[in-house]
Each structure stands twice: as structure tokens, then as C-alpha cells.
Design brief:
The chain has 6 helices and 19 strands. With 302 residues, the protein is an alpha/beta fold. It is elongated, with a radius of gyration of 21 Å. The chain binds flavin-adenine dinucleotide (FAD). Flavin-adenine dinucleotide is lined by residues 7-13, 30-34, 36-38, 40-41, 44, 46, 78-79, 106-109, 132, 238, 241, 271-272, 279-282, 284. Residues 2-287 form the FAD/NAD(P)-binding domain.
């Protein structure tokens, strides 16, 4: 069995694995996609001490750093069940059962869906989630960004440089993004911001041709003709597979204490899959280190 088994290969999981391996204990890491969300990130300017880097480059350095230690890396493997017996057992989708004295869950998060008609039908036919990946497909076109939080406004600023016009639709009466991002957004000539807008439907034939929304102030329905819709309404933690085992809050985030411990003895968690207040690379790494030290502390006491 492993001493520490990490589930997830993003910034949190990679950090947890390195901290464990440096204690000289038997460490494994299971990742569906090593690197995690940073693989979908272009510019990173807030990874302190590095003025600028790009996601795939940072992901490659993470992997190189983990490989520098004696860590058993199981990439392209998905965990589907966790059970506390004498040891903690983690079952993978391929049927394998891994056993470990301590487990650190670092399965991160994914884009949230809007759940309106047209969204699923036109996915990759005009409906997109990753502006860095799909933005260039909309060069010279009219796109909408749903969501006026940091990610939505960042996406709109990004897309304004590629698309002909960007319409931001925010459900609330105000944008929630940081003031500096809003200032930047409002300074752009080809951006329209519509607040109080409830998206009703994404329309199209073989691909997206428009969006219908309800003005929540007046109740009136409006239609905008456009070719692309970027959904930027937040992240959902990848924790469904823990249903009934590890305690989570109403958002599905794993509840951890200051050592990264969950309600199950020997099971720790870190990064975007937890109830941490902010979801950032540097924060995930810090919590990965915390959970790993917490797990080591647990091991020497049990
Ligand atoms: P993730 O990066 O989500 O990694 C989760 C890992 O778990 C992945 O390896 C995944 O494949 C794996 N996994 C999931 N489920 C399972 C399972 N069942 N079994 C096995 N493995 C599983 N942060 C910044 O600090 N600066 C930025 O500029 C920045 N820009 C961003 C831009 C975009 C487009 C996005 C999406 C995020 C950005 N972030 C940024 C946020 C940052 O990427 C995340 O906070 C960070 O990646 C979280 O790390 P994590 O390790 O907790 O989770």
C-alpha cells in the first residue's frame, strides 16, 4: 500500500505529492489529466516570483518537478469511489483498487453549465467555455459572454481583441468582477454590457445564430443575433464521486480544517475541490502543502 495517495494532478495535487515524497514515504498520484485547469490557461501573471508564464508551460514544470522525486504517477486514470476500511481504498474507473494509509483529494473543479435550451445542442458549434482555447475560432464575429464575474470579464476583454463585438450578459444588477477588470472592460469600444439579463435560450440551426434573454427589470424578452456564446458562470468542484463518504458543503466543496483534514480520518483535501475562499494556483499549491503535512502528521500519530 501507499503511505500517501494523491488524487488529482493539478497544482494542489502536484504540490501534495512533492511534499509527501520529500518525507521519504511511499507516494502515489492518480490524475485524469496531469496539469489540471492550468492546461486551459494562457497567460499567468500572478504566480508570484514569475512575472509571466503560460499554463501548459507551468503544467510541464509541475510534472517535471514531481518526476524528480520517487512518486508513482498514474496519469489518465480516474478515481470513482473512496472507502475507508482498515486502509483507505480508492477504486479507479479501470477497476483497479489502490490502498493507502492516507489519501489527499485534489480533484479541482470544472466549468459550470448554464442549463438552458441550446447549450448542450450547440456545444462546440458556437457554445464554448474556454476563451483561450476557442476564442480564435470567433475572429471577426459577434459573441456573447454569459457571466460578469472575474472569469467572464476576463474572457470578454480577451475576446474583444479577437471578435468584432462582445456582449456581456450579467444576471445580477451589477458586475461582480474586480474594479480594475471592469474599468478595462468599459474602456473597450466593441463591448456592450447588459445587466439584469436572464439567458433563456441559445438559438441556432446547425450552429449558434443568437441568444434570447429576459430583462429581469422589465420582464421583456430580447434576442441578439450572434455566432458564439462563452459560458463563464463559475466552477463546480469535481467531488461527485465522493457522495456519501466525504463531507461537502452545499456547493459540493469538500469541507477541510486548517490542516486540510476532512471528516474521514486519514483523508485530506486541497485546492479548488475544497471550501477554500479563493481558487487560485498559488492558493491551491499552499493548500496542497498543508494537506500533505497534515497527512504526514496523521501518519506519525497512527
Ligand atoms: P485543478 O487544476 O482543477 O486539477 C485537478 C486535477 O484533478 C486534474 O489533474 C484533474 O484531471 C484531476 N481529476 C479530477 N477528477 C478526478 C478523478 N475523479 N480522478 C482522478 N483525477 C481527477 N489561477 C491563478 O492563480 N492565476 C491565473 O491566471 C488563473 N487563470 C485561470 C484561467 C482559467 C481559464 C482557469 C480555468 C483557471 C485559472 N486559474 C488561475 C485558476 C487555477 O487554474 C486553479 O485555481 C488551479 O488550477 C486549481 O488547482 P487544483 O490542483 O486544485 O485543481
Amino acid at each position: 500500500p501507499f503511505d500517501v495517495l494523491v488524487i488529482g494532478g493539478g497544482p494542489a495535487g502536484a504540490t501534495a505529492a512533492i511534499y509527501a515524497a520529500r518525507k521519504g514515504i511511499r507516494t502515489g498520484i492518480v490524475a485524469e489529466r496531469f496539469g489540471g485547469q492550468i492546461l486551459d490557461t494562457l497567460g499567468i501573471e500572478n504566480f508570484i516570483s514569475v512575472k509571466y508564464t503560460e499554463g501548459p508551460k507551468l503544467a510541464a514544470s509541475l510534472e517535471e518537478h514531481v518526476k524528480h522525486y520517487n512518486v508513482d504517477i498514474m496519469n489518465l486514470q480516474r478515481a470513482k469511489r473512496l472507502e475507508k476500511k482498515e486502509l483507505i481504498e480508492v477504486e479507479l474507473e479501470n477497476g483497479a483498487i489502490l490502498k493507502s494509509k492516507a489519501v489527499i483529494i485534489a480533484t479541482g473543479a470544472r466549468w459550470r453549465n448554464l442549463g438552458v435550451p441550446g447549450e448542450a445542442e450547440f456545444k462546440n458549434k458556437g457554445v464554448a467555455y474556454c476563451p483561450h482555447c476557442d476564442g480564435p475560432l470567433f475572429e471577426g464575429k459577434h459573441v456573447a459572454v454569459i457571466g460578469g464575474g472575474n472569469s467572464g470579464v476576463e474572457a470578454a476583454i480577451d475576446l474583444a481583441g479577437i471578435a468584432k463585438h462582445v456582449t456581456v450578459l450579467e444576471f445580477a444588477p451589477e458586475l461582480k468582477a474586480d474594479a480594475v477588470l471592469q474599468d478595462r472592460l468599459y474602456s473597450l469600444p466593441n463591448v456592450t454590457v447588459i445587466k439584469n439579463a436572464q439567458t433563456k435560450e441559445i438559438t441556432g440551426t446547425d450552429k449558434v445564430n443568437g441568444i434570447t434573454y429576459i430583462d429581469r427589470a422589465t420582464g421583456e424578452e430580447h434576442h441578439i443575433e450572434l455566432q458564439g456564446v462563452f459560458v463563464q458562470i463559475g466552477l463546480v468542484p469535481n467531488t461527485e464521486w465522493l457522495e456519501g463518504t466525504v463531507e461537502r458543503n452545499r456547493f459540493g466543496e469538500i469541507i477541510v480544517d486548517k490542516r486540510g483534514a476532512t471528516n474521514v480520518p486519514g483523508v485530506f483535501a486541497a485546492g479548488d475541490c475544497t471550501d477554500s475562499a479563493y481558487k487560485q494556483i498559488i492558493i491551491s499549491m499552499g493548500s496542497g502543502a498543508t494537506a500533505s503535512l497534515g497527512a504526514f502528521d496523521y501518519l506519525i500519530r497512527n
